[in-house]
Structures are given as C-alpha cells and as structure tokens.
Design a protein that fits this description.
Layout lengths: L1 H5 L10 E4 L4 E3 L13 E4 L2 H6 L3 E2 L13 H14 L6 H8 L3 H12 L3 H19 L4 H7 L5 H12 L3 H12 L1
Parallel strand pairs: 2-4
Antiparallel strand pairs: 1-2, 1-3
Length: about 180
C-alpha cells in the first residue's frame, strides 16, 4: 500500500485510505499532497472505520466524496462546451471559464473523460449535425455551420471518423430506416 501512495496510483482510490497519525487527516492513495513519514501512516479499508478512528478528510483530495475531486471542473467545462459549441472555442476560453491553466485543464479533462476538450466539442457538434441531418432539410453546408464547424472539410472529416460514413450517406440511411 505504501508503494501505491508514493506512486499516487488512482486505481486504488476507494479500496483503501491513508491516515496520517500526526495530522489526523486521511487521504486517497492518489492524493498529491506531500507524503508523510512512513511511521506516521496507518491504512484503513473502510471510510467509516477511518472516520471512527478520529481522522478527518483531506481538503485536497476529498476522499469522503464518492467521485473524483475534479468532477466539478469537468462538469463546468462540459457545460461551457454545450453552451458555446457554435462558436470558435479555444482551450484558453474553456480554461478561463473554469479558472485553470489550459495545460492543467486539458490534463484533468483527459484524465477524467479519456478525451480532450476538443474531442468532446467535436462529439457535441457531430451529435448536433446528426440531429439536423435527420430532422431538417438543410444542406450539408448549412448544417456544417449550424453545428459550429468552421470549415466543411473539417466537418466531413470529423463526421466520417465518428459515424463511419459521410453526412449525405448518414441522411440517406436515416431516411431509409424511417421510410
């Protein structure tokens, strides 16, 4: 267990907790706070057990919260992307909105979602385009700009990568399924 906390291994979060006897604080194995001396550490497998022993949760890694401590940052980023998908959104815009550096935001976002904010934005745009292809008579070019893409070539490339077909083929398949 000591090796896991030194490595800040996230895979063990929730499986055990690290309690520091001198500070009376307990953490997740992945906590990035300064590591205590090994002799001052006790390990607990249950959150109720560690709290009953008189330890309080770390304010940095928030082990008492069931989810990742970064979930709020990700939710705010997703909210920003959903509300601004039509605009030309840069990573700096999202980072400014959530109050982090672009580098750190991208790292946290990818850690939590396995995608970059750009990839997530492209999924939102492609979902919007797919909806418009199914439900409107707009041309592919109109849908491209309505979904927030800046260029038709990028629209076709991203759409094809996510749906394994062109927007026109997608529209035909949807009509064929309905008809």
């Amino acid at each position: 267990m000591w090796e896991k906390i030194i490595a800040c291994d996230r895979k063990y979060d929730g499986l055990f907790f690290t309690a520091v006897k001198t500070t009376k604080i307990y953490c997740r194995p992945s906590c990035r706070s300064r590591k205590p001396k090994k002799v001052n550490v006790a390990f607990y497998y249950d959150i109720d057990e560690v709290e009953a022993a008189g330890f309080r949760p770390c304010k940095r890694c928030r082990p008492e919260v069931e989810h990742s401590p970064h979930i709020e940052v990700v939710q705010n980023s997703v909210s920003f992307l959903v509300n601004h998908y039509k605009q030309n959104v840069a990573l700096k815009d999202i980072a400014d909105y959530v109050g982090l550096s672009p580098y750190y935001l991208e790292r946290i976002f990818k850690q939590e979602t396995a995608e970059t904010p750009r990839m997530y934005l492209e999924k939102i745009r492609v979902d919007k385009a797919a909806h418009l292809l199914k439900s409107t008579k707009l041309s592919n070019l109109e849908i491209c700009y309505e979904a927030g893409f800046q260029s038709p070539s990028n629209f076709y490339k991203v759409f094809r990568s996510q749906h394994n077909c062109s927007p026109s083929q997608y529209r035909k398949e949807c009509r064929h399924e309905l008809g």
